[in-house]
Amino acid sequence: MRVMVIGSGGREHALVDALLRSASVSSVLAVPGNAGIAASSTPQKPVRCLDYALEPQALVELARQESVDFTVVGPEAPLVAGVVDAFETAGEPIFGPTRAAARLEGSKRWSKSFMARHGIPTARFAAFGDEAEALAYLENHPLPIVVKDSGLAAGKGVTLAASLEEARAAVRAIFTQPQPEVVIEEFMRGMEVTVLAFCDGERAALMPASQDHKTAYDGDVGPMTGGMGVICPFPLEADTLERVQREIVLPTLAGMRAEGHPYRGVLYAGLMLTDEGPKVVEFNARFGDPEAEAVLPLLEGDLLEVLRACAAGRLDPQTVRFAAQASAVVIMAAPGYPGSYPRGIPLELPELPGGVRIFHAGTALEGGKLVSAGGRVLAVQATGETLPAALEAAYAAVDRVGFEGAHWRRDIGGRLPHLRRL
């Protein structure tokens, strides 16, 4: 089958990597893709990258022109724009939630209200479309407090405010944008983890729990980023994972069905492990990035068949299996990220040992040379029998990458005492 993958980051490189392991995939078209994805091409399974408008109807026409058999959507923006609706209307097979279902990510206000309607555990909240009302609400709310941009913010629209002035500044920043809306939440205490699930509208197959490290600097300080590294599996107890399935994932699918918008795709549940049990921090409507780079290398079996089963509403969760190994990802970012950063930095990638991959998150070719083309540039991933072994292999590879001025966190996994490296 000829598969089209929409997106250009490390998540999409990980998707292409996993799809190329599928016996039923004959070729891949990545739109727009990146330099690493293009380098995945082989004579047996060619991969082509095409810079093209990510507009729903244009992508439908492209799929027809290129005789695409199945399309996989990576990033959130095309989903919220309705790319799945356009493909379904045209009779073109595609993996991902519809625009209405993608509101779980596209509008935090809607998502929080949905959780309240269906009894899904999450933080108490209030939402505002008026700046003065939001600022007034802050005056009587205990600190710390969480301020969120209700719309899409590439994982960076969240402020954990320790002071009232910090909270006010976050609210004011959100209201400088077009059509602003803010969600203000109570602060939840606990360990934050992510559980991804393949969903077919009714059934769900949970993937191994993972933990992203979202702030820029060691010690979980600094500005929020799109993610600086991941460990997988996070050591979540079996009964806790069962509660996530019973109290969060399946009720979400049931609620979406009841409201007329069956959820087919990957459901990303960002969770806080509180003293009262797991609660939802946020939902995303797709594979996380960089969580995908950690989880997908552990998938056993045929990814394309799993995605097709989800899209067709015939997923058998018992057939979705993951290797009993560990995976670690370290993000190498451009100097200055997540603020302003240079592009065009020359990159030199080393020969890699077995079990180590480098997924390209923001790269390009200039004059035949590999250079940086984004903030998060490379996702260095390693698989091992244990998390310490996977982390050791990932960091060993990072040390060998030629990338002047690169920034990376040196404490990925360090929230767990036995994984601390510093």
TrEMBL record:
Its cofactor is Mg(2+); Mn(2+). Pathway: Purine metabolism; IMP biosynthesis via de novo pathway; N(1)-(5-phospho-D-ribosyl)glycinamide from 5-phospho-alpha-D-ribose 1-diphosphate: step 2/2. It catalyses: 5-phospho-beta-D-ribosylamine + glycine + ATP = N(1)-(5-phospho-beta-D-ribosyl)glycinamide + ADP + phosphate + H(+). Coiled coil: none annotated. SUPFAM superfamilies: Glutathione synthetase ATP-binding domain-like (SSF56059), PreATP-grasp domain (SSF52440), Rudiment single hybrid motif (SSF51246). It comes from the Bacteria. The keyword ATP-binding applies. Residues 112-312 form the ATP-grasp domain. Its EC number is 6.3.4.13. The keyword Plastid does not apply. GO terms for molecular function: ATP binding; metal ion binding; phosphoribosylamine-glycine ligase activity. GO terms for biological process: 'de novo' IMP biosynthetic process; purine nucleobase biosynthetic process. NCBIfam families: purD (TIGR00877). Belongs to the GARS family. This is Phosphoribosylamine--glycine ligase.
